[in-house]
Design goal:
By secondary structure, this protein is an all-alpha fold. The protein contains 6 helices and no strands. The structure holds protoporphyrin IX containing FE (HEM).
């Protein structure tokens, strides 16, 4: 396997866990904030920063693989029409990439909206909605069988 492909694939694979843990903690903290009527805390702001930063890294590494290193997307891009007839090539070249870009856009939009709100309850509510929808899309597109494509949970 090409070295740069291996490095980016391993990075992308492990960074998915940072995204998952940060996203789940962010959703849990918003629920706790809503039910306990507590203020929007500094740790929530930090968690949101970790979530958004790890998503940006995932997007960057994903794009590098998509256009330069992945032999799978290279094959798909060389004959896009034929690739659309293969569920695996279609998953990587269209579904995984585009739905995740949409999810990252939603998470980013949500974090901007949360920052602009003054009321803590509204901050919790927006965090819950925007992060919740983004995480749902991300979860469906993680290759763990839901879309018929499976990859190792932990890549070494
Ligand atoms: C939150 C967003 C994302 C998550 C959680 C995610 C997760 C993953 C996972 C778990 C894999 C499998 C890694 C492995 O085989 O060990 C993968 C592969 C891949 N992802 Fe993503 N990804 C995300 C976003 C993106 C984006 C936005 C792009 C492209 C624009 C992208 C492009 C790819 C490519 C090209 C592969 C590798 C296909 C191959 O094996 O050659 N990903 N992704």
């Amino acid at each position: 396997m090409n070295t740069l492909y291996t490095i980016t694939l391993v990075l992308h694979s492990w960074n998915r866990w940072i995204i998952m843990v940060a996203g789940i903690l962010l959703i849990a903290s918003a629920i706790k904030g809503l039910t306990g009527k507590s203020g929007y805390s500094l740790s929530q702001r930090r968690l949101s920063l970790i979530f958004i930063s790890s998503l940006h890294i995932q997007l960057l590494v994903g794009l590098l693989m998509y256009f330069y290193f992945s032999p799978i997307t290279a094959e798909a891009l060389s004959n896009f029409g034929a690739a659309m007839k293969s569920p695996v090539l279609r998953f990587w070249s269209v579904e995984h990439a585009f739905v995740n870009i949409l999810a990252i856009g939603l998470a980013q939009t949500g974090s901007i909206i949360v920052k602009r709100k003054d009321d803590d309850n509204a901050k919790h509510k927006s965090t819950l909605i925007w992060t919740g929808v983004a995480m749902l899309l991300i979860l469906v597109m993680i290759p763990m069988g839901i879309m018929g494509v499976e990859r190792p949970w932990f890549r070494f």
